[in-house]
Amino acid sequence: MNKPRPESASAAESRPVFNALLGREAWVQALKREVNQLLKRQGEPVRYPSEEV
Questions:
Q1: CA 31 → CA 19, 22, 27, 47, distances in Å?
Q2: What is the spatial distance between Cα 49 and Cα 32, in angstroms, rounded to a whole number?
Q3: pLDDT at 35
Q4: Structural contact between residues 53 and 41, judged by C-beta atoms closer than 8 angstroms
Q5: Fewest Cβ atoms closer than 10 Å to its Cβ: which of 23, 32, 40, 53?
Q6: What pLDDT does 47 receive?
Q7: pTM
Q8: SS3 content of the chain, % helix, strand, coil (to 5)
Q9: Number of folded domains in the chain?
Q10: Please, is 35 exposed, middle or buried when counting C-beta atoms within 10 Å of its C-beta (0-12, 13-18, 19+)?
Q11: Which tens digits make up the pLDDT trace of 10-28?
Q12: Residues of the domain holding 44
């Protein structure tokens, strides 16, 4: 029977960094959507078309 391998020290140490990067990416996407919404309200073209829903 195979035992589950314990997480290596470097993987355990990098997990908080990975989670922080994911959180930052979500924040950046939300910010881009907000910029697009504000530009639309002013009748301007969107700046970040990739964030349009």
A1: 18, 14, 6, 12
A2: 9
A3: 96
A4: no
A5: 53
A6: 96
A7: 0.67
A8: 70, 0, 30
A9: 1
A10: middle
A11: 878 888 888 888 899 999 9
A12: 19-51
pLDDT at position 11 is 78
Distance CA 16, CA 52 (A): 30
* Token duo for residue 49: 């078309």
Residue 26 identity: A
Q: Is the Cβ–Cβ distance between 48 and 35 less than 8 Å?
A: yes
The answer to whether residue 44 is domain-embedded is yes
Single-letter code of the amino acid located at 28: V
3 within some domain: no
Q: With H, G, I as helix, E, B as strand and everything else as coil, classify residue 17.
A: helix
Question: Who wins on pLDDT, 4 or 26?
Answer: 26
Q: Is residue 35 part of a domain?
A: yes
CB 33 within 8 A of CB 51: yes
